[in-house]
Amino acid sequence: MRSLRHRAIVGGLIWAAIALAVGGVALYYIFDVATQRRFDDTLLDRQLQLVSALGNTEGDVDLVEDFLTDPAYLRPYSGRYWQISGAETDTVASRSLFDSLLPEPRDPAPEPKFWTGAGPEGTVRGAYSLVELDDGTSWTVMVAESLAALELERQRFRQGLLSTLALIGVLGIAGAILQTSAIVRPLTKLREDVAHRWDREEALDPGDYPSEVAPLVADINTLLERNRDIVERGRRQAADLAHALKTPSAILRNALDSLERDGTDIAPAKEALDRVDAQLLRSLARIRAANSGATTQALANLSGSVDRMARLFRSMPATRSKDFRTEADPDLRIRMDMQDLEEVLGNVLENAFQWSRKTVRLACGNSGSETWIAVEDDGPGIPDHARREALRSGGRLDTSAPGTGLGLAIATDLVQAYGGTITLGDSAALGGLSVRISIPTRLGLGPVRT
After folding, report:
1. Same-domain status, 425 and 342
2. Which pLDDT value is given to residue 373?
3. Where are the transmembrane segments (predicted)?
4. CB atoms within 10 A of CB 342
5. Separation CA 104–CA 142 (nearest Å)
6. How far is CA 48 from CA 13, 77, 102, 175, 337, in A?
7. Which residues are CB-neighbours of 144 under 8 A, at least 6 positions away?
8. Which residues make Cβ contacts (< 8 Å) with residue 280, sequence separation at least 6?
């Protein structure tokens, strides 16, 4: 479980469940003890009333019923009973006992005692004591009440307790989710601000975040600045290396041209030098992409680059006679460095113009999750079995044609560095090759537009 939100919610729910369980058991125990004590206190009150009634009759147990006003004593099997027994007289009981009697205690004493046993209709709990009157007679005075009422009260409490705990649990879950969301919200904001930082080209303000997160924000600022410096330094070094290699390459090419004018066959050497230049360009492109690539937040103006490529190829003598059509939204942007984007477009378009007969078409758009570029031509195309070879390093399919065969490979390296793909297919409109370039948009931001 890697999500802090899930950890906090699950942890809170576990502790809430433990607290509810412990609290529920404690509340039930306290209520059970309290109801039992209240039940016993009521029994003692009734037993005292019976003793008082016996004293008022001066030992005439037949008159005791006249001093007791509880109607439950008059209703058979009502669940509330009394019984008086003496050593030399018959036992007298309430009418509620009907044709039964309560069990006689074995050791009656002046201090009231409690007992639980079988009654006329189920289990009863009672209180009894030994009472001595002024005339010297001794009586065992007993009262009892059915435990059904006590159990019913306990059952109702359990139901109420469970309902209350369930409500508290629901409120606790909602509270845990809301509280966790409030706690994690600064981290979510930080993630979004980091994603947008390159768009705004400004540092994050630690004052916009809680004190616990502010040090992390400061560290992220330092890390992002250092990363920017590393990327810029890597790209400058690649540019310096490219510039440094141009001079010896130009010297070698001039020397080969001089030998060619003298009648020397320099075709193999010139082709080898072309391939060296192409490999150097590819390596430099890969160095640049490695220093930015999928981690970059730069947004290049795709329509502007398409317009520049269109002007370039329409002005070149070798391509100006061909029909070049472009279709690009003027507000469309792509998550690539502009130099890398134009190198990809240049290599793909150069390949398309080299093999096309009359027409090359470029279109681009955004599907929400990716920005795509499609380049089509009316040339011979590439068979299915040879398309993978065409994207591989140095995969020349026709060695008789000029070029190094690295154009699509260089484009593939750059596109893959940005997490994208290049797909070769058949052009449905022109009949030749279709090259589709897909670069994912940044997650959570939707289509990239100005």
Report:
1. yes
2. 94
3. 12-31, 160-178
4. 18
5. 9
6. 52, 22, 18, 52, 98
7. 43, 80, 81, 82, 83, 102, 119, 124, 125, 126, 127
8. 242, 245, 249
Q: What is the mean pLDDT of the chain?
A: 81
Helix or strand run (H / E) with residue 140: strand 138-146
Q: Is 65 exposed, middle or buried (0-12, 13-18, 19+ CB in 10 A)?
A: middle
Greater confidence, 182 or 309?
309
pLDDT digits (tens, 9 = 90+) for 57-74: 877 888 888 888 889 888
Which bin fits 79, alpha (ψ -120 to 50), beta or left (φ > 0)? Answer: left
Using CB atoms within 10 A of its CB, is residue 152 exposed (0-12), middle (13-18) or buried (19+)?
Answer: exposed
pTM across the whole model: 0.47
User: b/e map of 210-248 (b: 16 or more CB within 10 Å)?
Assistant: eeebbeebeebbeebeeeeeebeeebeebeeebeeeeee
> The CATH number of the domain where 13 resides is what?
3.30.450
Q: How far apart are CA 325 and CA 362, in angstroms?
A: 6
CATH code for the domain of 332: 3.30.565.10
256 in a domain, yes or no? yes
* The domain boundary residue, chosen from 104, 122, 153: 153
What does the pLDDT read at residue 445? Answer: 40
- In sequence order, which ranges of 201-266 are alpha helices (DSSP H)? 214-261
State the total domains in the chain.
3
How sure is the predictor about 402, in pLDDT bands with cuts at 50, 70 and 90?
Answer: very low
Print the domain residue range for 340: 296-450
Residue whose pair of structure tokens reads 């317009």 in the numeric block: 307
pLDDT above 80 (res 78): yes
Do 337 and 320 contact (CB within 8 A), yes or no?
A: no
Strand ranges in 309-358 using DSSP code E only, listed in sequence order: 323-327, 333-334
| Domain match, 23 and 133 both | yes
Tell me the backbone φ, ψ of residue 391, rounded to 5 degrees: -90, -5
Question: Is there a single domain that holds both residue 8 and residue 100?
Answer: yes
Residue 401 confidence class, pLDDT cut points 50, 70, 90: very low
Query: What are the contacts of 275-282 at 24+ separation with CB within 8 A?
Result: 275/394, 275/404, 275/406, 276/249, 277/249, 277/404, 278/404, 278/406, 278/410, 279/394, 279/404, 279/406, 280/242, 280/245, 280/249, 281/242, 281/406, 281/410, 282/393, 282/406, 282/409, 282/410, 282/413
